[in-house]
């Protein structure tokens, strides 16, 4: 995606990997068993470098993440770059492995009647690549969850204040500001992933608020406002599911006055 923004650190890192690959190709090592050992080591180092890069990205974001004067967490372009950078590096591993001639080396080992070594070589490489992919994907998830966890207190505060003037507007503005930055900076895949995670977190928070409000025996007007807020969120996140419908039905029930409940009972 040419519109996705990466920092030079990601581009340079992958560039270094390809420089190593080109250097290895120029050597044209003749012994296939030695090739197996050397290529395994190269791939191991590339995978370790990728995970180290992801660690550095995460630590940098932890150090850079700022708050506004009201201590409201802000999604920054730097945070988006970190997500994109890790994604870029992660997706570079598999093509690099292919270009290092893993399958060609494995086939040569089989042709040399060393089937066991060939299979072990392919299996080892696959395990290294899979592990690196999982570690980098986990780093991405951590960055996403950490950001959302910092957004949730702001969202919860504004949700609890929805009865006040402009509180819902403030909440939607806060979400807009965060999501616009994400939309502009993240790849479509990462944006969709983040959006889905935010929705799940918001829904969970609304369920918590509903349960605690029931325990506090808040009036039906409170739940009526909560229902209206929920409907706004469903439209905003474009989310519709049986689980959402079930939760909405419960909210709608809690929002009814005694007279409305009696009327509904007789109608049914």
Strand tally: 0
First-last Cα distance: 54 Å
Count of DSSP helices? 10
Rg calculated over all Cα atoms: 26 Å
Biggest beta sheet attributes = none
What does this structure look like?
82% of the residues lie in helices and 0% in strands. With 268 residues, the protein is mainly alpha-helical. α2 (32-64) packs antiparallel against α3 (77-99). The longest helix has 46 residues, at 115-160. It is elongated, with a radius of gyration of 26 Å. The mean pLDDT is 86. Keywords: Cytoplasm, Endosome, Exocytosis. Its main location: cytoplasm.
Draw up the topology in text.
Layout: H1 8-27, H2 32-64, H3 77-99, H4 102-111, H5 115-160, H6 167-185, H7 188-215, H8 220-237, H9 242-254, H10 258-267
Helix pairs in contact: 1-2, 1-3, 2-3, 2-4, 2-5, 3-5, 4-5, 5-6, 5-7, 7-8, 8-9
What descriptive keywords fit this protein?
cytoplasm, about 270 residues, elongated, exocytosis, BAI1-associated protein 3, single chain, MUN_dom, about 80% helix, Munc13_dom-2
Give a quick rundown of the structure.
The protein is mainly alpha-helical and 268 residues long. The protein is 82% helix and 0% strand. The model has no long low-confidence stretch (mean pLDDT 86).
